[in-house]
Amino acid sequence: MTLTLTRALEIDIKLIPVEEDKALLLARRLWEFDGRPIEPQALRRSLERILTLCQREGVRYPAILLRRKKELERGTWAPDPALAIPEELPGDPNCTICRGAGVITNPGGLSGRNCECYIRKRSAKRDPATPEQALDCQPRRGSSLSSLE
Ligand SMILES: [Zn+2]
After folding, report:
1. Nearest-CA neighbor of 13 among 2, 1, 21?
2. Per-residue pLDDT tens for 124-135?
3. Which of these, 6, 65, 11, lies nearest to 32 by C-alpha position?
C-alpha cells in the first residue's frame, strides 16, 4: 500500500468538504515534493509550507491540517512510525549484489537472472528450514526511518 498524506495525517477524506479539495491536492503535491516526510519535525515543516502556500494563494484549507501541525508542535500527536516501512523489496535489502532488487542484470542490460538472496528469500517464505531463514522475512523496522530524513 502506498503511503498517502491523508493516511499519514489520519485524515478522513469523507469529512473534507469539496471547497477544500484544492488545498488537499496542493498539500499532497507539496508533501510528495518534500519526499513524503513522516518524521514529526520534517512533517511539521512540510505542513507549515503547505499552510503558508494556501494562505498566500487564498485557498481554503481543511482545519485538520492546522490542527495536526499544532499537535506536532506540542507533541500530542505523531504519525504512526509503522507507516514509514517501505514496501517490501523482492530481494534482501542488505544484499550487496542487487540491493534488494532481487535480480542481477546481465551485461548489456537486456536480460537478468534471479539473485541468490531472492531465491533464498522465496524458498524461506515457502518453508523456513532454519530460524535464520525465517528471520529473513521479518520486516526491518528502524532502518527505514532514518532513510526518510
Ligand atoms: Zn541480491
Report:
1. 21
2. 765 545 555 455
3. 6
Residues with CB under 5 A from ligand 1 (ion): 91, 95, 97-98, 115, 117
User: Which parts of the chain sit beneath pLDDT 70?
Assistant: 1, 85-87, 125-149
Q: How far is the CA of 137 from the centre of ligand 1 (A)?
A: 14
Distance CA 84, CA 36 (A): 9
pTM over 0.85: no
The domain locations on the chain are 5-83, 88-137
Nearby residues of 116 by Cβ (< 8 Å), 6 or more positions away:
97
Span from the CA of 3 to the centroid of ligand 1 (angstroms): 25
